[in-house]
Structures are given as C-alpha cells and as structure tokens.
C-alpha cells in the first residue's frame, strides 16, 4: 500500500494538488487572492497554476480529467516496458500485451516494411468493378473494425434493453462532424485544406502520382460532403426517440437496393430480421450515391478510408502525415513519444488485458470500499432532493425513486475480465497485430447479436480517467483511473472527496434524469414514466440551462452550444447540489472546523474547481466546443456554482460580482 500511495502522491504533486511534505493531510495551496471568488471562481482556485503551467508540446492540454490519461499512460508504459522485456508464458496476458508493445516500438522494422502490409488491401480495391464489389469490400473491412460507409454497432435495443440488436448510425466522413464541410470561417477552411492535403499525401505515399493524387483527394472530399449533407447535427442526434427507427431487413433491402442489405448481413455472418436505423436519411443518400458516383471515385474513397484507418500502423511517413493533419484540430505541436503512442494503442487493442496488470499494481481495494459509501450517501441525498421538489407530482417522484434504487454501480474494475485467448500476437508484425485485435473486437461484438445483454460488461478500460452513465443498463461506472487525486484520495478529508469524486458521482446519477436519461425507465427501456405536466415543467427547466450556457463565449466568436451540452450541464448543476447535500451528512461538515483557514463548505467548493483544473490549446478548444457534449472546464465550475446558493454563502458572493445571479434566477432542475 505504501508504494501505491507514493505514486499517487507524486502524480498529485506534479499537478499541483498537494504538498509532498504533508502526505497524510491534503493542504490547499496556490489560491489566487487577486481574483474575487464571486468574479471567477475557476481562476480564484486555479489561476496561479493556469498562468504558470506550460502545455507540453506533445499534448493538446494539461491538467485533470481526460488529460490525466497522459500520466496514466506513463504508469501503463512502465508496466509494458517491464513485461515486454521479460520472458512470459506463451498465450499469457503478459506475453500478449508485452509482444504487442514490443512490435509497436520496433520502428526500424515498421519503417523497413513501409506500406507493404497494406498493399494486398489496396490491390483488392483496384479490382473493384461495380457497386456489388464496392459493398463486398466494405463487408470485408468491417470484419477488421474498419468502418467506411456503414456505421455498424451492436448494443441494447433501447425499447427492449434486455436484448442486443444491430444499430446503424450515420458515418462516412473524415472531418470531425458534418458542419466542418459547410462552415466558411477561416479556422474551418484551414482544417478543410489540411484534410485534403492529408489525403493527397497518403495517396502519393502509397504510389499515386502527385497530380492524380490531388484529383483523387478532391473526389473523396466531394463524396464526403454529399454524405455529410444527409447527417443530422450533433444537437439533432440528442433526440432519443428520433434515433430509434426499428425496421425489418426485408423493408430496407427493398428501399435501398443498391446497398444490398441482405448480402451485406450474410457477408458479416449476421442473421437478423430487424434492426435499428438511427439516422435513415444517411442511408437513403448513400443508396443514391452508390450509383450516381463513378466506380473510380468510389475506389478513391475506399482507398482514402483504408489509408486513414491504417496510417498510424505503418511507417513514419504515414504516421507523420496523420499527425500533421490531426494537429490542426488539436493544437498539439509535436508528436507524442513513441512509447506513449504505443501504450495508448495497447490500451485500445488489448485494454482489459493491460488493465489487469494495472489494477494489481496501482488500485487499492480500500478505494472501492470508500466509494461504495460515497455512492450510497449520494443516492440518499438525491432521494431527499426528489422528495423536496416543488415542481414534480408525488406519482412521478415515486417512479424517479424506483429508478434511482434500481441503479447498478460498477467501481474500479470488472468482476470478470474479457477473454483474449483467441488473439495471436507476433512480436515482429505490428500491422498484423493491430488487425488481429481489431478482428477480435469485431468478433466479440458480432457474437452479441440477438443475445441477452451482459450487464456485467464494461464500456471502458479500468485505467481510463473517466466516469459514465449508461441509460439502457441504468448503471453508473467509476473506473480505477478516476479514483485518484484530485478526484479521490484515501488520505483527504471528506470536503475534498465529496467536492471531487462526490460531485462526479452526483453528476453520473443525474445523467439518468437529464434530457436524454429521463426518457429511460428503471430497467433501461425508452418508456415514458412521467406525468405529462411534470415533464413539461422539466423541459422548461432544462431550457433555462440551455439559455444560460448559450451566453458563454469561449474564444472570440465561439460560444458554448447550450443545446449540445444541456445534458452535461444539467448533470453538473445537480451533481454539485447532490454532493453538497451528502457532504452535509458528514462529521466534518457538522463540526465546521477550518483547515488552512477554509471552512468545510469552502474546501468542498474549492475541490470542485480543482477537479476541472485544465488548460488547453486554442485549436483543441475550437474542436471541443463544436463536437463535445461537455462544457469547457471553466464553465463546468462557474456555470453550476452561479446557480447554487450555498456557494454564495460560503464565499460571500454579492450583487456586482460577475458570477452573481439574483436568487429568483438561479436554476434548479433536481
């Protein structure tokens, strides 16, 4: 245990969360007294750090949340450096992850092979003669999780969540989302040009003459723009009901004959009578384009999708071309060290294998026990808040409580690990290893079709710094990766843990009652459990959330999209309130003793600001605001706190302060 704690301590010190000489007591430092708490609480708590920290050239940001996955990868890389150098039993997890890592680190062999491993796939594209052979190739590649024009996914039927079905989503584009093809601001145009240049480079690197490569890239971009025009926006895709269109295979086969759905599914080895087409307009457009676009242009498109899918598995000219494009979206100045990149690849490809080694070394079982207590206290606090709601009827309150106590909670790591016994890993062939793990992922997914949903399955790897709510399973999940400072610390006082991981727990609980989650019942089916008038009042309150966040400017003319982020913002607003109510049950709150000159309430709110201590590059932030359903870090702190009266009392926020809102205008959803 001592070793585990010391590693957590080193990480916390590096991020500025505690003083290394005070291992048994977490002290709050680096408060910026030049900033009034009521003007900008994020900068009051984080300003000294924010103004002095430098973003590494190999990263697009620094700090907590997803950026904590950077130091996590350093931990996992240490494991991989060790196991890859050891003599491991054939077929063991250590052998598979160690040899996969070693193959990726063998840059000399990868460079020597160039794009040789890809030539057989490109040759098959050259042999395409008609639409039927286009679709045959698409099926072939989907077996390696290379999705081009068909967004195939297996998951619960959201109206019968006990059974897995096939879901088809819109896809087919290379830019982050549909609006990147149609916006005309200078930043977006720069990204469009960089993307076309990237495609051109990939074509030339794989043997196409420069002028022909440029023409092919333009043709590919044209096809993608046509497909993008049929896409729903990210905001439109939040409509749960509109994304459910369960259809008979025979019916869509008649409606979209060029796709050849019956042949497609038989080629995948899937026997189904029906499926959910989430965005039907996309497949109508694809069906038309399959015959209106020339076969030569479709071949160029399939080469582009293949090259972009595999570029990072090939020699340095390909991976560098991939990075040159991606940095336009991320702002990252230089490529990550090879060890970090390959560690990330292992996590994606054999993640639950590597996680077993990570958990053994870094996850203290005491954390799971403490989390159980925290989760139970947060659920009690949320139940009390439901009881006290003045806008909801008793009958809907009863249904909400039923759903709350039907939750399943996953903490730390799975009770059973995923089986990788069928995956063969060769220390000398990185490209083939990537294909082998991708094929294994596809086989793992396809085996679920028509089968009962496995409610023990995890949707992320345990070392990942994240937490999530999965409405069809009515579950909340807290992986081992997030159970570390600043979110959770076995040595910290309750104020910091309730303001940290407690807020995250409250946030994830609330997702079952946000604009999307509220449409799922206690077993995970999309089913109305609301009285009509109650739901109308609920929608009015979430509209207030949309309106508030629409006002926030992130960069020059770039605003937060309130309708895109409403679910996350609702969860942030309620998550803080639930966590605070649970904190009030603790002895620390009741005693009211100050630590470092701060009251328990103040330490609670300071902890909230510290868990979103993040600084990013502007290019990353532009992409984030356009594509991510979360608000940027600063507004995950200031936005919710502006609505929470106990915060006003804790820091004496007064009229005239920039974060002040009259009490009558403060938003309460839950």
Keywords for this entry:
11 strands; Collagenase (Catalytic Domain); 670 residues; 4-stranded mixed sheet; Neutral endopeptidase, domain 2; 2 domains; alpha+beta; 7% strand
List the helices and strands and how they pair.
Layout: H1 2-14, H2 41-52, E1 61-63, H3 69-85, H4 93-105, H5 107-113, H6 119-126, H7 131-142, E2 151-157, E3 160-169, H8 186-205, H9 210-229, E4 246-248, H10 249-255, H11 261-268, E5 274-277, H12 280-292, H13 295-310, H14 316-330, H15 338-349, H16 351-362, H17 365-388, H18 394-404, E6 408-412, H19 430-446, E7 468-470, E8 475-479, H20 494-499, H21 501-511, H22 532-550, E9 553-555, E10 558-559, H23 562-583, H24 587-591, H25 600-611, E11 614-616, H26 618-627, H27 633-641, H28 645-650
Helix pairs in contact: 3-4, 3-15, 4-15, 4-19, 6-13, 7-11, 8-9, 8-14, 9-12, 9-13, 14-26, 15-16, 17-18, 17-21, 17-23, 21-23, 22-23, 23-27
Number of helices: 28
**CATH architecture label of the largest domain:** 3-Layer(aba) Sandwich
CATH topology annotation of the largest domain: Collagenase (Catalytic Domain)
Give helix % range. Answer: 40-55%
Low-confidence stretches: 1-24
Distance between the termini: 39 Å
Largest sheet: 4 strands, mixed
Residue fraction in strands: 5-15%
Highest-level CATH class of the largest domain = Alpha Beta
What Rg is obtained from the alpha carbons, in whole angstroms?
26 Å
Number-wise, the strands total 11
How many domains? The number is 2
pLDDT averaged residue by residue: 94
**Quick one: CATH superfamily of the largest domain?**
Collagenase (Catalytic Domain)
The largest sheet has its strands arranged as 2-3-5-4
Q: Label the overall shape.
A: globular
